[in-house]
Amino acid sequence: FVEARYERFMLSELEEIKVEQLISTGRVTALRDNEPVLIFNFSSTYKHDAGLFCRAAESLKKDGKIDEEKLKDSDYEKNSCPKCGRR
Predict the structure, then answer these.
(1) Which of 49, 45, 56 has its CA nearest to residue 17?
(2) In the chain, where the domains are located
(3) CB distance 65 to 59 below 8 Å
(4) What pLDDT shows up at residue 81?
(5) Hey, is 78 helix, strand or coil?
(6) Which of 6, 11, 30, 52 could bridge 17 with an S-S bond, Cβ 3.0-4.6 Å?
(7) How far apart are CA 80 and CA 23, in angstroms?
(8) Model confidence over 39-74: pLDDT tens digits?
(9) Burial of residue 64 (number of CB atoms within 10 Å: 0-12, 13-18, 19+)
(10) pLDDT band at 11 (very low <50, low <70, confident <90, very high)
(11) Which residues of 20-53 are buried (b: 16+ CB within 10 A; e: fewer)?
(12) CA 43 and chain centroid, separation
């Protein structure tokens, strides 16, 4: 793995942080000055984690803290494959 690019974003500058599902991967994007920016790419295995990241970032931006209880998905583990973690 070689890092091709590294950028830092202020959370206060980002709007509409969301997961975009692609064919076998996905990406987390946001709007910065009304322009789309790529936050990170992920494989489909990490789709749930990317969703958690988006919810945590929105919670941190809105409330100034992350409420871990709100982020818990109570049925995720019981409806997920114990080997790979996919739903």
Answers:
(1) 56
(2) 11-64
(3) yes
(4) 76
(5) coil
(6) 30
(7) 20
(8) 999 998 888 889 999 999 998 998 888 888 777 765
(9) exposed
(10) very high
(11) eeeeeebebbbebeeeeeebeebeeebbbebbbb
(12) 12
